[in-house]
Amino acid sequence: SARAAPGVAPGNSARHVSRAAHLLEEPHDRRHGLEEAAALPSSQVKRVAIVGGTHGNETNGVYLARHFMRSPDLVKRPSFETEVFLSNEAAVKQNTRYVEEDLNRCYLLADLTDSAKATASLERKRALEVDRRLGPKSAAEPRCDLVIDLHNTTSATDIALLMAPDDDFAHELGHHLMSLDDGVRIVNWNTQPDWALCPSVGRSGMTFEVGACPWGCIVPDLFQRSQKLLVALLDYVEAHNGRISAGKVARQNVTVPVYRSLGISIDYPRTADGDLDGMVHPDLQGRDFGEIKEGDNLFLTFGGAVQKFNRKDHKVPDGQGSVYAMFVNEAAYYEKKVALMLFDKSEKTFSKSASA
């Protein structure tokens, strides 16, 4: 059944840690006390969570979640339960990314299980509540098998599905959505023991990132396409469960293109005292997922000087092949001193379920 509830109640069963991440996060200490649950590609999904408002000013996701909450039949499926809620209602009310600190940096297991840290801010208290509802992350079995976290970016990503490299079920879902919309891309995070994003609380999950969306605005095309793809995703999960229930599951290998984080971010030009002294070059603006080659225009200083891409200066490892830009000129990353992030492009082969 579908449950559309704006509040968060403590979860009443446990869960295992899945993978999803944020590009800006550095590797953290390995998680403790976690056991692997049965892989979703070979087991049924019992509960899906669709989360909006992790960032309160990412309005496409906020109102898509609210639409599902008001129209629960859109997300109701016979074989599993779907919950929809807003995770940072205080930030939504203020139309701001966060109130005290970024909620999407509060889901590290070490932080959730640190009683002092877990209550240090409004967002950390909220993360603890969300963790109890979706997880908890420290448990061996997830309450929620699949977590879809709705986000917007001011960068021109179109529809980017961000997930961990080893989350095969999220890749299976991404592969299906790519077949329905040419604007869908799969993005892999760094390989690391734990991540601070909301979907990492679930057994499987993804950040459903769409852009370009200005803060506080709804972009009609992206809203409609997001809704269509999320409904299709739930239909796919229903079919997945049906094949398993009927004992008619075959496995087939598929290969999808994926963008992989290199863990490299590039800052804007700065003055000697650290103030902003330039902007993304017009040639780069709006070119998320475009290749950046040696000598390409990267920045334009306020004085009119062009700064070009230099692999050595920007710490691209020797032997690294082509590199691609993402989160170009993302508004939320000005405070983090990030003008863009670098990725490579590869292929991932995995086994997906099919009818026997």
Keywords for this structure?
356 residues, alpha/beta, 11-stranded mixed beta sheet, 3-stranded antiparallel beta sheet, 6 helices, 14 strands, 26% strand
How would you describe this protein?
There is one protein chain. Helix content is 20%, strand content 26%. With 356 residues, the protein is an alpha/beta fold. Strands 1-3-2-4-7-5-6-8-14-13-10 form an eleven-stranded mixed sheet, with helices on one face. Strands 9-11-12 form a three-stranded antiparallel sheet, with no helix packed on it. The longest helix has 26 residues, at 220-245. It is globular and about 65 Å long. Mean pLDDT is 89; it is low at 1-38.
Number of helices: 6
Give the spatial strand order of the biggest sheet: 1-3-2-4-7-5-6-8-14-13-10
Order of secondary-structure elements: EEHEHHHEEHEEHEEEEEEE
Question: What share of the residues does DSSP label as strand, in percent?
Answer: 25-35%
Total strand count, please?
14
- Which outline best applies? globular
- Content-based structural category: alpha/beta
Major beta-sheet overview: 11 strands, mixed
What is the arithmetic mean of pLDDT?
89
The radius of gyration computed from the alpha-carbon positions, rounded to a whole number of angstroms, is 20 Å
Distance between the termini: 27 Å
Helix content: 10-25%
User: Which residues form runs of ≥5 with pLDDT under 50?
Assistant: 1-38
Sum this structure up briefly:
It is built from 6 helices and 14 strands. It is an alpha/beta fold and 356 residues long.
